[in-house]
Amino acid sequence: MSAVKFTKDHEWILMQDDGIGVIGITDYAQDQLGELVYVELPEIDKELSGGSDAVVIESVKAAGEVKAPVSGTVVAVNEALADEPEKVNNDPMGDGWFIKMKITDTSELDDLMDEDAYKEYTDDL
Amino acid sequence: MVAFAGYHMPVQYAHGIIHEHKHTRAAAGLFDVSHMGQVRISGEGAASALESLAPMDVVDLEIGHMRYGLFTDAGGGVLDDFLVANAGEHLDMVINAACKKDDLHRMRIAVGDRCRIEELEGRALLALQGPAACEVLGAMAPTIINMPFMTAADVELAGIACVVSRCGYTGEDGFEISVPGAAADALARKLLANDAVAPIGLGARDSLRLEAGLCLYGHDLTLQTTPVEAGLRWTIAKVRQPGGQRAGGFPGDDRILRQLVEGASRRLVGLRPRGRAPVRAGAELMDGDGGSIGIGIVTSGGFGPTVGAPVAMGYVGSAHQKPGTIVQAVVRGKQLPTEVVRLPFVERRYYRG
Questions:
Q1: What is the mean pLDDT of residues A33-48?
Q2: DSSP class of residue B147?
Q3: How does DSSP assign B224-259, residue by residue?
Q4: Do B203 and A82 touch (CB under 8 A)?
Q5: Residues ≥6 apart with Cβ < 8 Å to B282
Q6: Domain chopping of chain A, boundaries
Q7: CA B92, CA B84: separation in Å to the nearest integer?
Q8: Cβ(B313)–Cβ(B270) under 8 Å?
Q9: Where are the domains of chain B?
Q10: Which of A35, B114, B135, B275 is 20 to 30 Å from B336 by CA-CA measure?
Q11: Are B273 and B267 in contact (CB under 8 A)?
């Protein structure tokens, strides 16, 4: 998992060799949110700038947004989440991925936290 | 834990809202609702004093029986909803936490000279709800097993003198237990020791009552809603209605009695969004044809774990209140087709003997 980077809003991005980044939310985030009941994924080819809203998620109690950790274009979405939003809670770092993006500028990843930094960050929350 | 009406309360325990919700409908959920106000009114004039503040029949409420009622204001709007039980020597009321200070103040000013009003500050309130509640509580006190729905009695539980009512806020069979504060912890632990019982937080309390089509004060009932608009005309006994022996004589009677005869211009209805996106309190409702005319507002909404879909309640203009009517709920700038449906969303399973 050493290629995974994290944001302060508890999103993760895993860079693949082909310049595609897989994006999801962390275990900390899914625990805070509670069981997800609805996920609204973006369209393929949607362009997102880093920090902008990528996915709408709703738990029993509240609605929230998953933000794009860095800028890019959506190339794939996890359609299984439409019927089974609870995949995000059950496997947030794996089956619960939200979108895949072609990353515009890999240097934006440098602003994100690595696994150790993220762990330290959540320990302090 | 969150702050709620000046109290520290859990939104959920370890397993989460959906799990707690489903557990309550399958077995038994234990709720600590001690934040609610417990008020005792006594004296010969107590029942008619309460009738002067609420459009309901208290005078003929039999001993051991209880009713759901509403405090109304001069405009016919709802100030609070409550339960009142006739305990023989006095009337016992349970009122909402957020309203209890105002309710007590108002009662004291209006009728403090006609009856004695006591807040039972030293008492806790536990609710045990679900199909297994009777078996669990019955093992402690067999006398509760055949208690009819909406009755209350003095019952000793684990050696503690309690008042047990067969009522609740989930649509399931269940009991509310008034217990001296000092003994509440021990009683709760004894109930939780039963495998069938799980602790339930505020999150599931809300999803359970929403699925049961029960109003939440501050959302579905406010000063801007009358009992008739809220679909609660059944709480107004015939004796208080036009032609009844004690017709009127409560705040807002002009408007409410007129609405009982002529109908109201809007109505609280059940709402089933067609898709999977929850529609929540505050969402605007537009007409189903072009979606260009505002026809109402959502007052409660979320996901119903037993229904397995989004559910909501809201007010619509009377032209749109018929079940089957399609309206549009505005969510994140989009219009979501939503069907008007009868309440409740989940069949109520009150004890019928």
A1: 96
A2: P
A3: T--TTTTT-GGGS-GGGSTTSTT---STTHHHHHHH
A4: no
A5: B297, B298
A6: 4-105+113-123
A7: 6
A8: yes
A9: 2-209
A10: A35
A11: no
- Indicate if the pLDDT at residue A1 is higher than 50: no
Predicted confidence band at B11 (pLDDT cuts at 50, 70, 90)?
A: confident
Q: How many CB atoms lie within 10 A of CB A104?
A: 16
Judge whether residue A79 has pLDDT over 50: yes
Joined tokens for residue B242: 């036009």
Residue A37 and residue B207: Cβ atoms within 8 Å?
no
What is the 8-class DSSP label of residue B20?
A: H
A37 touches chain B (CB under 8 A): yes
Q: Which residues contact A40 (CB under 8 A, 6 or more apart)?
A: A55, A56, A57, B277
Distance CA A66, CA B157 (A): 49
pLDDT on residue B287: 95
- Alpha carbons B96 and B92: distance in angstroms, whole number: 14
CB < 8 Å to A56, chain B:
332
Judged by a CB distance cut-off of 8 A, whether residue B9 touches chain A is no
Q: Give dist(CA B281, CA B302) in Å, integer.
A: 8
CA–CA distance, B184 with B196 (Å, rounded to integer) = 19
A84 touches chain B (CB under 8 A): no
Q: Please tell me the predicted confidence (pLDDT) of residue A16.
A: 92
Q: For residue B323, which of B286, B287, B271 has the smallest C-alpha distance?
A: B271
Is the domain covering B2-209 a CATH 3.40.50.10140 domain?
no
CATH class of A4-105+113-123: mainly beta
**A3 Cα to chain B: minimum distance (Å):** 32
The string of pLDDT tens digits covering residues B290-340 is 778 999 999 999 999 999 999 999 999 999 999 999 999 999 999 999 999
Amino acid identity, residue B151? T
For residue A77, the surrounding DSSP H or E stretch is strand A72-77
